[in-house]
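Hi P.,

Sorry for the delay on this. The queue was packed all week, but I finally got your sequence through. Input first:
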Amino acid sequence: MEYPKVLTLGSRGTERALFGAVQVQEKVDGSQFRFWADPNNEVHYGSHHREIHLGENYGMFTEAILYLESIKNAIQSLGPSSFFFCEYLQKPKHNCLKYSRTPLNHLVLFDAHRHGNWVTREELGDLSVILNIDLIPEYRCGDISLNELRELLDLESYLGGTPIEGVVVKNYIENIMVGGHLLPVFSKYVRPEFKEQNDHHHKTGKVTLDDYLASFRSEARWAKAIQALTEEGKLTQSPKDIGPLIQQIHKDIATEEALNISHFLYRHFINNVLRQSTAGFPDWYKEQLLKCLEPQQGEK
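Then the structure:
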């Protein structure tokens, strides 16, 4: 089981992200890491992008897997078909932010799925104690406005040393169809320097196609691609990485922005398409009318 896609708040599919009671949690600047017990109660590990098999090179995730292997009995005691989702930090500066410390045993538990359901906040806290790992801070449970979300961005991270990267808003009531699966609406709201899409052009009113295309060029998105391939152990720290990184950036946009791009292109160019579709039609129709007035073959 993979974790549902966390969409950028404001993008297509997040229109009702703040409707009703939601959970607002800190977004930690780490690498997503998951572990689970399958139906046979065998324990497995994986990053956000792949499963990590025992005995292979664990790369940056070595500390997490060695620790979890040492408490495998505790994981299995929680029962088969249980899934646990964490942020992993190998060191205080794992990605961009430099925290004062790493989480307990390098892991922050932010969600779990057991017995076919997402666990409650209370259950998540109990699981973090059993697993002896950190529990993600929750800043709000209930209704919240966009202005209140903005105010949360000034908070210091629970790991210390820096303001939070952003927040994750979890709405388990509202749903969205992604890849043929009905999933809860999870969205993120981050500080401006961590936005993956530049939005300065929205302030000017009219948006040109060139403006829109340029909005996808951001260092945050580039850094995200580096993080993804680092987690998969595919970088050589040489110019040879440029090709795979470009492919990863393209993949990220194609996966996450397809609905937004489709909506933009339709909204901004549908009138042009409609006008072009009938260019020349009046003259063509008049010709058809004239043909109807001409005597048919055999008529006098």
